[in-house]
Amino acid sequence: MTNLNLFGHELVVDNFAGGGGASEGIEQALGRPVDLAINYDPDAIAVDNGPSLTTP
Predict the structure, then answer these.
(1) pTM for this structure?
(2) 37 partner at 20 to 30 Å CA-CA among 3, 10, 13, 52?
C-alpha cells in the first residue's frame, strides 16, 4: 500500500456533517480544522452557509 501523504498529516473526516456542530467539536478537540466534511442531505447542506464553506 502506498502512502501519498498529500496533506502532511492524517486526514480528519466528518462523515455526518450538517447543522449539528460535529465538525466544530472535532476542530476544538484536535486544535485543527476538519479536512473533509461529507453530507448528502440538501436541507443540512443549505444550513451550512458560514465562512468555513469552500468549494473547489
Answers:
(1) 0.57
(2) 3
